[in-house]
Design brief:
This protein is α/β, with parallel strands linked by helices and about 230 residues long. The protein has helices spanning about 15-30, 40-50, 65-75, 90-100, 110-125, 160-170, 180-190, 195-210, and strands spanning about 10-15, 35, 55-60, 80-85, 105, 135-140, 140-145, 150, 155, 180, 215-220, 225-230. Helix content is about 40%, strand content about 25%. It has a five-stranded parallel β-sheet, with helices on both faces. Strands 6-7-8-9 form a four-stranded antiparallel β-sheet, with helices on one face. Strands 10-12-11 form a three-stranded antiparallel β-sheet.
Length: about 230
């Protein structure tokens, strides 16, 4: 269950301390960092200051109940994922909670292992995939992955298909030595039929085209190549 690595920051809001501690125990064992609040107003403060990744929210809370807390968050444009808890097995509560913007719903008493599973499922659904940057800038060289264009000091440099891919790989691994075999796998693919001299030929061409720029491809004898900024 990914022990030893924090997967997400979870805020548990419930006025029953034993519920909070039970959920905390299982969620921490699953690798999550757990925050706690025991009323709606305190939860709102924690949300604004700690910015949790997910909220496990009891509906029946003192000071500010779960319905109103959820309503306030959504009114502010906060899209924090919410799993609602209630002691009542009432479809009306479930429907209202989901209409207010909750992502999932559990009835107390609940199985803590099921809570961990639901937390993981909601996080997978709601987390946005990280996008790799389209633009790489190293020194005076700019490489646009989307447009497949390279510029040195603002001037476009024509590159062949594999020259472009090779330069992109080296720029993404600045100052890191990559062997010829690694470059073949990363640029040409695992099923490439050929020898490592292909890499040497493309490196030589790239060196010529990078001449005069701040970037230089160094040969690390017996290992491979690395891109450095001068």
């Amino acid at each position: 269950m990914c022990r030893g690595r924090t997967m997400a920051k979870i805020l548990i809001v419930d006025d029953e301390a034993h519920i909070v501690e039970l959920a905390r125990l299982y969620l921490q064992n699953a690798g999550h960092k757990v925050l706690a609040a025991y009323d709606g107003e305190a939860a709102l403060q924690v949300i604004r200051s700690q910015k949790p990744d997910l909220l496990v929210l009891d509906l029946m809370l003192p000071k500010l109940d779960g319905f109103e807390l959820c309503r306030q968050l959504r009114r502010e444009g906060n899209d924090l994922p919410i799993i609602m808890l209630t002691a009542r097995d009432d479809d009306v509560d479930k429907i209202v909670g989901l209409e207010l913007g909750a992502d999932d719903y559990m009835t107390k008493p609940f199985n803590p292992r099921e809570l961990v599973a639901r937390v993981g499922a909601v996080l997978r659904r709601t987390r946005k995939p990280q996008q790799k940057p389209s633009l790489l800038e190293r020194g005076d060289v700019t490489l646009d992955l989307a447009a497949r264009e390279v510029k040195i000091k603002g001037r476009s440099i024509p590159l062949r298909l594999k020259e472009f891919d090779l330069l992109a790989t080296l720029m993404q691994h600045l100052n890191i030595v990559l062997s010829r075999e690694q470059l073949l796998e990363m640029v040409w693919g695992y099923d490439f039929v050929g020898d490592t001299r292909t890499v040497d030929v493309h490196i030589a061409r790239l060196r010529e085209k990078l001449a005069g720029s701040h970037l230089h491809i160094e040969t690390v004898w017996g290992v491979g190549y690395k891109l450095v900024e001068r």
